[in-house]
Amino acid sequence: GTACKATPFRPSVRKQGSKDSKFKPKKSLGQNFLTDDALLQSIAAAARLQPGDRVLEIGPGKGSLTQQLLQAGASVLAVEKDARLVKQLQSSYGQRADFRVIEEDFLTLDLSQASQLHPAKAHGRLIAAGNLPYYITTETIKKLLPWGHTFSALHFVIQDDAAKRLVSPDASEVRAINVEIDFYSEPKYLFKIDKARFSPEPTVDGALVHFELRQPSEYLLTEGRTSFMKLVQHAYLQRRKMLRKSLESLYSRAQLDKAQERLGSKCSLAARPQELSMAHLVHIFTVLQEAKHSTF
Ligand code: SAM
């Protein structure tokens, strides 16, 4: 009997991935794909898209989430850095009028172009969504937060530990980024996604987070926001120090004295950043700016 030698064992499972077998995911681009349609559908559903809404999808990969977003009635502008995937997306969805893919690094994308580049000119909400490559999570969120005049919400799959750090940090873990998030948005942790659901499997679990962006006027006018963020960054750079100490590089001693007089004891410059609510911080900022421009 030589029959055994002649027919090598070929598991039929192999065949399933054969179309894709030449594709080697790049770790450096954070390529961990989601393939479970039911899960992808619930990710898209949680964005509560209405027909006519527009999505800027970051890192569409092979288009598994894209498909669910389109199915929900949204039009999609997809930004993908990997040329191999751009080609694949182009051939799967390129014919559709409600889809466009551009080959670009999201971090260098000019957001003021997002609306013009979008395939649909409809006036639904514009939402940024995606199963993000983990290495650009923080930068991506920071980049989009101040764009409440253009984007209604951010809807991202990120690492679970990052999701917790960004959305619900312990009081002692609050960083400048958390203040920025609270200032610009209402953040929500929606649900955890087990690492086994990704392919290839990453070392940590993921989670779906949602940031409903505020309109810029809700707290401060646009020009004030950059200066306010500077104050927040300075305050949290040395978050165990009194506000007054950390702000010495931004305001003169006379300005700080003047502001302290105006503030009284309730929200003193002697406080540490963690002891202050967002409303307190904004109030302190307003008084400091007035002191700087000597309006009292
Ligand atoms: N959305 C797909 C899914 O859920 O299966 C893929 C998600 S995968 C975690 C991240 C995707 O982002 C990859 O396709 C990767 O090539 C792409 N990517 C990585 N860095 C990027 C960047 N700077 N700008 C745009 N896309 C990027």
TrEMBL record:
InterPro entries: KsgA/Erm, rRNA_Ade_diMease-like_C, rRNA_Ade_Mease_Trfase_CS, rRNA_Ade_methylase_Trfase_N, rRNA_adenine_dimethylase, SAM-dependent_MTases_sf. Pfam families: RrnaAD. Residues 39-215 form the Ribosomal RNA adenine methylase transferase N-terminal domain. It is an enzyme of class 2 (transferase). One of its GO terms (molecular function) is RNA binding. PANTHER family: DIMETHYLADENOSINE TRANSFERASE, RIBOSOMAL RNA SMALL SUBUNIT METHYLTRANSFERASE, CHLOROPLASTIC. This is rRNA adenine N(6)-methyltransferase. It comes from Apatococcus lobatus.
